[in-house]
Amino acid sequence: MVPIPHEMLVTNQPKERALLMGVETRNADWRITDALEELARLTETVDVEVVGAVSQKLDHPIAATYVGKGKVEEIKDLRESLGYELVIANDELTPSQQRNLEKVLDCKVLDRTGLILDVFARRARTHEGRLQVELAQLEYRMPRLTRMWTHLSRQAVGGVGLRGPGETQLESDRREIGKRIAFIKDQLSHVHTHRQLYRDRRKQTRTPVAALVGYTNAGKSTLLNTLTGAGVLAEDQLFATLDPTTRKITLPGGRDVLLTDTVGFINNLPTMLIAAFRATLEEINEASVLIHVLDVTHPNAPEQAQTVLTVLEELGADDKPMVWALNKVDQIDPEVHGSLDELVARLPIESGALTAPISGATGYNVPQLLAAVSAELESLDRFVPVTAVIPYADSALVDQFHKVGRVDTIDYVERGTVIHGQLPEAELTRFGAHVAVESEGITA
Ligand SMILES: Nc1nc2c(ncn2[C@@H]2O[C@H](COP(=O)(O)OP(=O)(O)OP(=O)(O)O)[C@@H](O)[C@H]2O)c(=O)[nH]1
Ligand SMILES: [Mg+2]
Q1: Which of 116, 123, 233, 235 to mutate to test the pocket of ligand 1 (most atoms within 8 A of CB)?
Q2: 335 C-alpha to center of ligand 1: Å?
């Protein structure tokens, strides 16, 4: 018998076809075309073909149907020419928006959150990663079931004995999901205890941690691989990495540092994913220094950088020293991108921050990046005596002083809180004019 070539065994299932829809609000951070472009990439990641995209300018999405009535009709009319089987919204839909749209359009309707959850579900490899994704998925589904159930039960109130099998089913679905959520949380707490033990052990070895952070597809894993040969999956795909990997490297100057690669960020990252991945993201909170890897050649590099800064703020990791790895410079085409300086000028980089234009892929200038990391670590080690006068309106800075510095005396005077103490050199800039270095002869 002639063996059947492998390719012939793969059935060529037709891809599902999707129409994208988005609302363009006036103060949105991203231009709608860019946001839809990214949504298209996410959609292709789950093997769905994008057949078109529509958008509408609105002050805010319509409560009942996300886009307005006319737009819904337009989408409906496109069905015949485009032949889509599902519609994907660029924002998270409320359960009722989703239900209303499915009713009117008579097809499956997905939202950005559901789509990202799907991508994550495909990518999760480790036990912990899978549990975290499932938790996020169940929590996403729960209110959608609940509201559906409430909606049905209201109908059922109409007459005695109308408690149909449908409702009972939903009620028990809800109970089952509730049970599963509790089970996963329990499992995760075991995994987390284990991870915390590992981290505590790591702390005892006193090897500082540098975390690679950045937008998805910026090149974090590629850089880790170049530096350590870690063999982490690095692909031209959104969310190639979900599970954290840590490797030890030696910096120029001989100091060891643990380098951690973890999940990338994206604009509008669903909050339930941040919550579910909190343990993974803790790796970032444990770091002494952040290496912000940015694809400077991406047309939305400034927006991506801003998104990363915002997510870090949400995670409470925005107070860490950051070294900027301006990545993919090997790919800069002056005709398309202009010069590196022009690209960098658009970025939200704090003055005084250390930057290094690199190529993680070729290794170009990576030693310079590592030298910058080394410099940040050294200045964290170096404490300088200071006097800070912090106005009461900026009292958050007092908390930060306690967190990163050493307080010798603290007084409350009319001008504000006066602290004599020491701060790591690397932290001085964040206190701005409120702090004076004593050795420079300026005292409060
Ligand atoms: N030209 C060029 N391409 C790069 C460079 N670094 C990474 N890439 C490419 O960019 C794509 C994404 O790289 P990854 O390392 O997977 O990116 P990541 O930041 O880990 O992405 P996620 O894990 O999805 O968050 C891959 O196709 C890489 O080959 C670089 O310095 N130059
Ligand atoms: Mg990666």
Answers
A1: 235
A2: 22
Least confident span in 32-46, 68-82, 187-201, 351-365:
187-201
137 with 267, same domain: the answer is no
The residue nearest atom 12 of ligand 1, judged by CA position, is 217
Q: Which pTM value belongs to this model?
A: 0.83
For the ranges 17-21, 43-47, 167-171, the maximum mean pLDDT occurs at: 17-21
Q: What residues does ligand 1 touch, defined as CB less than 6 Å away?
A: 214, 216-222, 234-236, 238-241, 264, 327-328, 330-331, 359-361
CA of 279 to the centre of ligand 2 (A): 17
- For residues 368 and 226, membership in a common domain is answered with yes
Strand partners, 245: 261
pLDDT, position 228 = 92
8 inside domain: no
Q: Which of 44, 215, 217, 265 to mutate to test the pocket of ligand 1 (most atoms within 8 A of CB)?
A: 217
Q: 22 and 36 in one domain?
A: yes
* Domain-located, residue 4: no
How far is C-alpha 16 from the chain's CA centre?
Answer: 27
The string of pLDDT tens digits covering residues 95-105 is 999 999 999 99
The amino acid that residue 221 corresponds to is: S
Q: Identify the top-confidence range among 165-169, 215-219, 419-423.
A: 215-219
Taking the centre of ligand 2 as the mean of its atom positions, its distance from the CA of residue 225, in whole angstroms, is 10
Residues 321 and 402 in one domain: no
Q: Where in the sequence is the domain holding 282, given as residue range(s)?
A: 207-380
- The CB density around residue 87, as the number of other CB atoms within 10 Å, is 25
Sheet holding 245-250, edge to edge: 245-250, 256-261, 209-214, 289-295, 322-327, 354-357
216 and 335 both lie in a single domain: yes
Q: Do 138 and 155 lie in a common domain? A: yes
Same domain, 60 and 92: yes
The one-character DSSP state at 411 is: E
Of all ligands present, the nearest one to the C-alpha of 238 is: 1
Same domain as 349, residue 239: yes
d(C-alpha 117, C-alpha 139), whole Å: 11
Beta pairing partners, 123: none
- Which of these three, 95, 119, 143, is where a domain ends? 119
Gap from CA of 359 to ligand 1 centroid (Å): 10
